[in-house]
Amino acid sequence: QVQLVESGGGLVQAGGSLRLSCAASGRTFSRYTMGWFRQAPGREREFVACISRMGASIYYADSVKGRFTISRDNAKNTLYLQMNSLKPEDTAVYYCAAAEGPFSARLGVQAAAYDYWGQGTQVTVSS
């Protein structure tokens, strides 16, 4: 069981940067694969990035590769998403998520594989 709370969203101009944080409660944060997803109006929830329990494995969607960086600090029970070179198409509500069980890269990119979700934080990139 884990509770997740995102923060750090806001309004930025194209080319700017934001850092999102996801604070997790509980004693077992390091047991979860963590992921970032986003959802824009009228679109399906989209995978952004995920990271394994100790951070050894990281995967990015092609659309954000080279611009976004996912990281975690298990001592602080916190997941991060550093977003650089933002584009208007990055505009969405961003959600962090936690997945129980053995890590699988194939499952890590699927929203249905995650067991717990935060409330989301809005990111708006102006053109």
Query: What series of H and E elements makes up the topology?
Result: EEEEEEEEEHEE
Radius of gyration: 13 Å
* Number of E-type strands: 11
3D shape: globular
The largest β sheet comes out as: 7 strands, mixed
- Percentage of residues in strands: over 45%
Mean pLDDT: 95
| Helix share, percent | under 10%
User: Strand pairing plus helix content: what structural class?
Assistant: mainly beta
Count of DSSP-assigned helices: 1
Which stretches are low in confidence, meaning pLDDT under 50 for 5 or more residues running?
A: none
First-last Cα distance: 40 Å
Supply database-style keywords.
mainly beta; single chain; 1 helix; 4-stranded antiparallel sheet; 3% helix; 7-stranded mixed sheet
Descriptive report:
- This protein is mainly β and 127 residues long.
- Helices cover 3% and strands 46% of the residues.
- The protein is built from one helix and eleven strands; from the N terminus they run E-E-E-E-E-E-E-E-E-H-E-E.
- It has one helix at 105-108; strands at residues 4-7, 10-13, 18-24, 33-39, 46-51, 58-60, 68-73, 78-83, 92-99, 116-117, 121-126.
- The strands form two sheets. Strands 2, 4, 5, 6, 9, 10 and 11 form a seven-stranded mixed β-sheet that branches. It has a four-stranded antiparallel β-sheet with strand order 1-3-8-7, with no helix packed on it.
- The mean pLDDT is 95.
